[in-house]
Amino acid sequence: MTTAQQTTPPAAVGADPAISVRDLRQSYGDFEAVRGISFDVAPGELFALLGTNGAGKTTTIETLEGFRRPTGGSVRVFGTDPYGQPAELRERMDGVLQHSGVFGELTVAETVDLSRDLAADPRDRAEVLELVDLADKAKVAVRQLSGGQRRRLDLGLAVLSRPEVLFLDEPTTGMDPEARRETWKIIKGLVADGVAILLTTHYLEEAERLADRLAIMHRGEVKVEGVLDDVLVGWGDRIGFRLPGRIRSEELPELPGATVAVGVREGDPWVVYTVNGADTARRAHHAMGPLLSWADQHETTLERLELRSASLEDVFLGIVDEGAADLATA
Ligand SMILES: Nc1ncnc2c1ncn2[C@@H]1O[C@H](COP(=O)(O)OP(=O)(O)OP(=O)(O)O)[C@@H](O)[C@H]1O
């Protein structure tokens, strides 16, 4: 299913978009990395751009930050073309890029001070360090920070000038789960303060937790877009369990209206029945009866049995699989 759903962003009703992308195309030589994508982000909204490696997310962010001129279509930040970072936008937007450019020999405090010197109305150093939980690292050289602490410093530097638009390119990479949750709190606070955020991440849970709306990109195109519930619609319900040791996959029963696939989850052979079509929750529920009867007949227990609706990960993997199938039939 490759329905590029376009929904009206709830936060955008009545508000001019902070970020606007229209049929954006971006090429490197003969290679078209971004192939006509469109989306808006309103003030006080977090839009997550998800996608496979090389899908074109960073290229899109770099274009919005004014580092690249579009090969086709247009991008606007507060109605202004960001190419070359015109003065009227420089104060209003900032970002955390995948590779930060901070100097490793400076201390954390010196690094913050250096950025404060360049900003018109910066937050206090103490406020910045408090915000990203690095107050106790003020005197430590940046090169001595852990990967996750370094990402938090990047975030602190990005929010120091109180931007109205923030680009976050994989901001929690390298963070442990605790640091990631702390960072989510900071990001949520910024959104609540009215900042428009464009986030890319490979952590789907991060998008589920933070995004007001999201898009999944694959090979330069937006494949699905919308609020989470809309994105999940149409991807079916799932019945999953660990493949019993004595059972071969060919022996698994057919269940009405469901397709079966055997893969691997956390190192275990894992069975997934997908129930598609209309009224999937009820039909998936009804499929449980025949499945449990089959298990009884085979005197086997279905370990870690689950019945659930589609997750963002299912949608993501479905899109990637479709891409692979398209290539195979091309
Ligand atoms: N400077 C460049 N010159 C040539 N090709 C490039 C350049 N930068 C990116 N590409 C290519 O463009 C495509 C999109 O890259 P991009 O970095 O935008 O993807 P991404 O979605 O951010 O990927 P990832 O999730 O791996 O960071 C990739 O195929 C990449 O190899």
From TrEMBL:
InterPro entries: AAA+_ATPase, ABC_transporter-like_ATP-bd, ABC_transporter-like_CS, ABC_transporter_ATP-binding, P-loop_NTPase. Residues 19-244 form the ABC transporter domain. SUPFAM superfamilies: P-loop containing nucleoside triphosphate hydrolases. The lineage of its organism: Bacteria, Bacillati, Actinomycetota, Actinomycetes, Streptosporangiales. It comes from Spinactinospora alkalitolerans. PROSITE patterns: ABC_TRANSPORTER_1 (PS00211), ABC_TRANSPORTER_2 (PS50893). This is ABC-2 type transport system ATP-binding protein. It is a peripheral membrane protein. CDD domains: ABC_DR_subfamily_A (cd03230).
